[in-house]
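SAMPLE LOG
Freezer: B-3
Tube label: C17
Construct: single chain, 254 aa
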Amino acid sequence: MRTYLKKLGSASVVALSIVATPAFAGGKVTGADYANGEAIFNNGKGNVPACNSCHGATGLGDDNLGTPRLAGQLYQYLQKQLDDYASDKRQDTTMFVMNANAKGMSAQDRKDVAAYMNSLGRTFTGKDLQKASGGSDVKALAASGVEMGQSHLGKVLVNFGDIDRNIPACMSCHGHNGRGVDPLYPRIGEQKFGYLVKQLKNLREGARANDPMAQMQVVARKLTDEDILNVATYLTQAPQTTIGNSQIPVEHLP
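STRUCTURE (predicted):
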């Protein structure tokens, strides 16, 4: 129990330290130039190509390229990833270009791009808020021969974990259906299937090690290939709202 409380205390300190960094003011990131972020996203800058050339016109990612959804992702998380690529704390093992791209942007550019991408896709369209939007088409992936998991088994791990294997529920950190918890835990719900699978395996195998306090590495090492496929299959089509409650926490709104 003491060990658990000590870890919880450490996590709280980290979270509080991130909250103290440049924050949101009326839904906007303080000090961010959204016009500059949009220009880089759509047109690139210098030797840095346009972000949309790999991540899609609306930042929803591309399963064929293995690129993640960036639209609506937590600003703090996006900025951290760009900074980690720039400092080589994280290595791009998907398209092998993000380290160079991040180095080609100034610290202000990275902030502006992160703020702009955070502003994309944060509102719902259509009447049915219980449906996911922007994730992978699991039926199309399965039809194309991609190995998929079983969504109902992934849902169990996401919502309840596995006490026998000491695997915590994903929602205990990432919120309901992985919709993200500002400022520390990124949005993993409605993320691209292939990207989720690759990153969980990278974290498990040590190819990625830039997660705060190595929390995700510890969890990922307990996951089997089957677990990863199941979780990714569920999360990519998991809506942000709960049945009977269409309200989304204020930090998730634009």
